[in-house]
Fold these 2 entries.
Entry 1:
Amino acid sequence: MIRFARILVCILLGLSLLLAANEIFVTPPLFTPTFEAHPALVGSWRTEDVAFTVLPNGSVSGRVGKASVANGRMFPNRSWFGRLVRWRTDYLVRGDLSGEMNTYRFTAALNLKAGSLQGALFVVGANGARPRALRFVKDR
């Protein structure tokens, strides 16, 4: 009986380590649900000088400062295990920013909380990544 308990504990620990590694190192993690736009996500969102429009198919358009969003895409950013242990954000938006003859990549890690999108925007350019905290409000 003790041997069975030890084997079971080892299996559970190994499974937990695999799930944690998946959540930490894989983007998006395995077991992440396919994107189905929640009705609360679809629409136009804005903050100071950032505006995103999320379409039901997950594509994102808009602007960051004076740069236009191109190839923007929203997708789920965590699996059931990540939600259980509160790792990562609910959604990730990735795309390109084009303006003034430069093209940059951006990533926005966002959570849907109390009717607003909250998170951080990372713009990767010539000087590396510059993070910025955001709180979007949905246009009515």
Entry 2:
Amino acid sequence: MKKEAVLIGAGERGRESSGAYAIRFPEKLKFVAVAEPDDNKRERFAQQHGISDEDCFPCYEALFEKDRLAPLCFNTTMDRKHLDSSIMALEKGYHLFLEKPMATDPQSCLRIFSQALKSRLMVQVCHPLRYTGFYKKVKELLDQGEIGEIVSFTMEENVCYWHYAHSFVRGNWARNDKSGPFILTKCCHDMDIAAWLSGSPVKKVSSIGSLRFFRGENAPEGAPERCTQGCPVEKECPFYAPAYYLGENTGWPVGAISGDTSLKARKEALEKSPYGRCVFRCGNNVADHQLVNAEFANGVMFNFAVRALSSYPYRSIRIVGTKGELRGHFEKGEIAITKFIPEYVWSYKPEIIEVKPDVGAHMGGDTGVINHFLRCFEEDDYEAMKSSLKIALEGHMLSFAAEEARTGSNILSLKDFKSRFGIF
């Protein structure tokens, strides 16, 4: 049965994830209203989804002044808008699909969580990795006891140098004070997976990392403020903006610099927008590499590494159990299981499991997470949604605690950390 929804925030995620789902599955979801301050983005979304002018709003505040227009609200506003917009949506009676992160500080995450419980409305945080075939298979293998009980696990996220430069140096997530820490804005996906797989609350956390490379003192001699101002190393610099944004590709990430993707408009964007700046002169302050160590209440040990300077983007996982070991590569869709049995003592013979990606971004995770939200709403499965939200909150607390540990050089007790924000 088709569900009707409103969208607040018609930027890239709103258009290319939630909006794309409704276009791909018109029998499941229809957007009937949109709120977006950018005229071009709002009009483009309205045209794509057949939304009338009277149901287009210049801001979410204007939309929420109206009576509830649909049972569902998809919130894809910028990170620091999540708290106010989500509380308003819940107070208006909307079930909420909320783009990650939930919010940019622990208190705000708790407010959204508490409001969801108070109103008994469903809140689905958009953590698509949980809903990919790859991570669902990993969880299934663990639940089946294929490697016994988990002893420890390791995860890596290699962001890739050009993605980091686009989003976390030149882009919207470059500064803690305007978005949030890197371990939250990029890696809350991974922290969510850690909380989900461990099946236990976090006990304590430590972390190290810094902004090492994308700093002013590392700029090449003579490099100007903008790449378009005649850089002496433009031919060899891997971050030279025209090489990124003025080629044939007009999809992501190029489409983020200008609503008009013509060559002329993109050139103008590089001369005026943040995306044309030298990556060493952007005033960014989020970390570009970080390590996190954690212990869960059930004794499981976890360590995580995120790197900005990698040659290509990929996630990997290694889980050691009491009866075997699991290794996986997300982008390749490969999982290897090795059992601790006598005939394998002198030879390494893993069982290889291949997992094909589903349709949609994040290896099908964007499709899967929206499917889960719609199913829970249709079946009134509030307990499943509540359980999912509790895991999301735990993953966010792990991110926040890791950042505090990184900046304060401490080993944090999560019980003490949570108690400061009224989370027990």
